[in-house]
Fold this protein.
Amino acid sequence: MKYPNFMMKLAALAAIVAVLGGYQSVASARAAAVAENEAAIEEVEAYNREIQLENARRQAVETYYEDGTYEGEGKGYGGPIRVSVTLEYDVITDIRVLSHDAEDPAYFSMAEALVQQVVSGQTTDVDAVSGATFSSKGILEAINNALDKAVKSEN
């Protein structure tokens, strides 16, 4: 035989391809499971917000904040961060980042996870994201600034 190790190398290559194919299928299945879990979590959190709103409506308690959407600004690492905060019966129903032009996209995307934590927990008392501390603090400052604007004048 002209190439004596050819068959062994070919068998090794086939084994490597088979292992990589198996890994890819496991990784794809895990990614699908994570996406499914994230969708389920978002659905539950949306349901919880609706329950909170309904409870607030039923109780007809005096509210601390005026209903509406308010904008706030905070100082991030690279400059100002602007957000809008929507309130209904003292429940934060939505937070949107309006601008963060001077922030590093990689760090800001990590810090942006705080928005969901604030809506889920109904508090800005959350920990800053490690590695994106300035962006995190800027987002929280902007949210608090918007909430300050929403406080009813008689409170």
